[in-house]
From TrEMBL:
The keyword Transport does not apply. It holds the Pfam family adh_short_C2. This is SDR family oxidoreductase. It comes from the Bacteria. Residues 1-25 are annotated as: Disordered. Keywords: Oxidoreductase. Belongs to the short-chain dehydrogenases/reductases (SDR) family.
Length: 284
């Protein structure tokens, strides 16, 4: 895997655009061969236009799933992801809108089922972050926006999806290494990621009788549009270099974990978190 380090300065704003990134992230390895692990499945992925979400969508497609992607306003990125899914021979729906709105979350679930016939896999992946080194600089408005973006939609989508999910369905949530070790400049973000861990564990217990599995993935520093849209200067240049592996990770190194959790290979796994962070040892 090519080392990702010494990133150049680049002008991006939240939530970030993948086609403006330097270097471009790797979405799927050339030597990743699908084995029909998700053949005939239908997946809904929030934040599916770019980064980890895009990589999940393409990996799911290569494994045989049709996908629906929810995104905010990154039209060009979303179109590129759809083209990549279609190139794998699978269907792809795009839903543009604001996940902070419960009505939109309900809509993407109902429209996925209407257009693709069912829903087997729900991936809650969308998130935003706003670094602040001083707690006094974190405004009430920022806290509310971070929580409304990063955790509220998990409730909205799961509640909307439950009546339609059958035995063997899978819900996969994207948390973060910051939920476990904290982050001195991402207090509100890491707080939402901690909430996602608790949400995952509690929902897994609540839904286990329905034979629905709920798990999570906790990425460390991964090269996605959120990074150049968030960090500047040395924080960007040295992004990921403090991991034991000494580099940031690629989306292509994260998405296969979602394939595993969505497939029958993980049929006896629920309430768990897979840590993909370049070697940082995490308890829990």
């Amino acid at each position: 895997m090519k080392k990702l380090k010494n990133f150049p300065e680049q002008k991006q704003s939240q939530p970030g655009i993948e086609n403006k990134m330097t270097p471009e992230p790797q979405i799927i390895r050339q030597d990743y061969y699908g084995s029909q692990k998700l053949m005939g499945k239908v997946a809904l992925i929030t934040g599916g236009d770019s980064g980890i979400g895009r990589s999940i969508a393409v990996h799911f497609a290569r494994e045989g799933a049709d996908v629906a992607l929810a995104y905010f306003d990154e039209n060009e990125d979303a179109k590129t992801t759809k083209d990549m899914v279609n190139a794998e021979g699978r269907k792809c729906l795009l839903f543009k809108g604001d996940l902070k709105k419960e009505t939109f979350c309900k809509k993407i679930v109902s429209k996925t089922i209407e257009k693709l016939g069912k829903l087997d896999i729900l991936v809650n992946n969308a998130a935003m972050q706003f670094p602040k080194k001083n707690i006094a600089d974190i405004t009430t408005e920022q806290v509310q926006k971070t929580f409304k973006t990063n955790i509220f939609p998990f409730f909205y989508t799961v509640i909307a999806a439950i009546p339609h999910l059958k035995k063997g369905a899978s819900i996969i949530n994207t948390t973060s290494v910051t939920a476990y070790r904290g982050s001195e400049h991402l207090l509100d973000y890491s707080s939402t990621k901690g909430a996602i861990v608790a949400f995952t564990r509690s929902a897994s217990l609540m839904l286990v009788e329905k034979k629905i599995r709920v798990n999570a993935v906790a990425p460390g520093p991964i090269w996605t549009p959120l990074i150049p849209a968030t960090f500047r200067g040395e924080d960007l240049k040295k992004f990921g270099q403090d991991t034991p592996m000494g580099r940031a990770g690629q989306p292509s190194e994260v998405a296969p974990a979602y394939v595993f959790l969505a497939s029958e290979d993980a049929s006896y796994i629920t309430g768990q978190v897979i840590h993909i962070n370049g070697g940082e040892i995490i308890g829990g």
